[in-house]
Design a protein that fits this description.
45% of the residues lie in helices and 23% in strands. With 83 residues, the protein is an alpha+beta fold. It has a single domain, classed as GMP Synthetase, Chain A, domain 3. It has a 3-stranded mixed beta sheet. Helix 1 crosses helix 2.
Length: 83
């Protein structure tokens, strides 16, 4: 069974990230917040594709469901400034 921490490590190993938070406690369904400079200039679908590329075959083998919120560093800073 996959842990949230292992999934976080998979993401950070395959993608340059400034912040990654992964939640999930059943080993198959996860929620992630991912902040990466590689997302700049890309739409949400393209950002998610970068994450899927970083995860490779794990998306089909180990991970049943992954809900993502992706942000550029600038968008993440704006969001946190309003909190």
């Amino acid at each position: 069974m996959l842990s949230a921490e292992a999934l976080k490590n998979y993401i950070t190993q395959g993608l340059t990230c400034e912040h990654v938070q992964v939640l999930g406690d059943d080993g198959q369904h996860f929620e992630a917040v991912i902040v990466s400079p590689l997302f700049v200039g890309k739409n949400m679908v393209q950002q998610h594709q970068l994450v899927y590329q970083a995860l490779g075959g794990r998306m089909h083998e180990e991970i049943h469901a992954l809900s993502m919120r992706t942000f550029t560093p600038e968008a993440w800073a704006r969001l946190n400034a309003t909190l």
